[in-house]
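ARCHIVE CARD
CATEGORY: sequence design from structure
SOURCE FIELD: tokenized fold
FIELD CONTENT:
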């Protein structure tokens, strides 16, 4: 496991990253929303979400909640889709706040969440033509070892 700083922006073709966020992430985002004056916008959005009965409208409302936007951006940073260098600009654009506030928010997110995200690289094994040949050659021996026995231990014998 590596942390975000050591794996930031490292995205290889066959590697996937699974971020593990600190348990307190939701509470931290809630405090950040309050600190930067976005709490009322969040609460209003949540009210609209619960008042709406139309699934597509609910999805749209949910995706526009400031808390959702922050958490999505954190995930994108952890997975290398958004550069840490661009984080303040992304916060400015997505939350419609001043760049100065976005930079302060970035610092807060770095100190409280981003520095504590654990990343685990998940690699996808590619089956190459050579590996296919190996599997075919191994095949008969694997089938022989997996052949069921004639006696079935899980059923009673019928006489």
């Amino acid at each position: 496991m590596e942390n975000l700083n050591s794996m930031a922006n490292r995205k290889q073709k066959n590697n996937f990253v699974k971020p593990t966020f600190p348990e307190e992430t939701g509470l931290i985002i809630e405090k950040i929303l309050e600190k930067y004056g976005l709490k009322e916008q969040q609460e209003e959005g949540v009210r609209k979400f619960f008042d709406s009965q139309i699934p597509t409208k609910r999805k749209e409302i949910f995706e526009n909640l400031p808390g959702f936007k922050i958490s999505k951006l954190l995930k994108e940073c952890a997975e290398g889709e958004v550069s840490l260098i661009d984080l303040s600009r992304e916060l400015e654009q997505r939350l419609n706040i001043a760049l100065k506030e976005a930079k302060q928010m970035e610092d807060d997110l770095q100190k409280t969440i981003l520095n504590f995200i654990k990343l685990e690289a998940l690699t996808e094994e590619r089956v190459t033509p050579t590996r296919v040949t190996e599997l075919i050659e191994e095949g008969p021996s694997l089938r022989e070892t997996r052949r069921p026995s004639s006696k079935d231990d899980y059923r009673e014998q019928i006489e």
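CARD ANNOTATION: The chain has eight helices and three strands. Residues 5-14, 140-146 have pLDDT under 50 and may be disordered.
SHELF: design records, drawer C
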